[in-house]
Amino acid sequence: MVMADQRIDVDPNIHLTRDITTAGTRDFDSDTTSIASRVARGRIENGRRYQAFKENVYWSPSDEQQFEAFELGHMVCVVLDYNQPNRLFAAPIDNDPQHILDIGTGRGCWAIDVADQFPNATVRGVDLFPPPINWVPPNCLFEVDDVQKPWTWKEPFDLIHIRQLLGSFTPDEWRDLYQQCFENLVPGGWVEQMEFDVRVRSDDASLPPNSVLARWGDTFISCAARAGRPLTTQETMRASIESVGFVDVHERLYKVPLGPWPKDQLLKEVGLLNLEHWKAGLEGNAMWLLTKFGAPHPWTKDEVELYLVEARKDLKNSHIHGYGYARRVWARKPRDDHMVQTNIKLERSP
């Protein structure tokens, strides 16, 4: 394992390996049932499908290509925690949880895996667009709903999971969401959130400072700031979670390579998965924010596509040894709701 503040050794033979840009894509079946047709169809903009449940508030498409990116992101998270006792979450919940909630479930991979792990629990995945799946475990339910509205679930949850929701909410909406999580957990229940930093870094000066990849994070952080929905939630979520009353707060920081350049075999696999994650999500991550909040004025679709050509060149360049950070925070609702306690613990992990 490599700690988050340590350098990752570069594989000296990386330039002799396969073309890192080649990978197959996966077709996803997007048929859904029992969902209003307008919500299920979504809306088309710049050639991508977006959710129509709550329009013009969220940057991410809801189509097959973006769902592939979500699934690859899930795989990155699982492999990052390959050496952990539980690869799906870090919160030390009881062995027999009854109710688990996945907010922003996306393709539903995490919810399905957790439902398999805990067959006696009811696992709910909620999002603004139905996941493209044909079969789920009998104890896994998917719902289209807006978590910013008052929750109507009758039973409190043992665990509430949030992941890859940067840019989804305003700071006030984030605090309201954490408050709803707090109010809808059993005493002693846990909330857990994991987010990826959108900035790419390098420890060996292999990332040209004027490259698209080097400026990628700051470009989109600025767009999201103009939209009022920050892409820096990973920097504030711990304090926000604590502010609504959670205690026993833990944090784990990961160093996530971009590309198969690490010498370590596990990190090489993480890097390859993360590269595919980036490639699948590149256009979807960029199109909405740049065409609505780009600087000095909103970009055209053609301008975005030309920009992405340069980004893909950077991703193809095996001489760039880039990485980003990911952060996981988990915290407990006090068993006594009136207990006041501050106990923040920091972990550093690969």
UniProtKB/TrEMBL annotation:
One GO molecular function term? methyltransferase activity
Show the InterPro entries listed in the entry. SAM-dependent_MTases_sf
An example of a Pfam family matching this protein is: Methyltransf_23
Gene3D superfamilies, A to Z: Vaccinia Virus protein VP39
Would you indicate the residue range of the signal peptide? none
Q: What is this protein called?
A: Uncharacterized protein
- Report the source organism: Penicillium ucsense
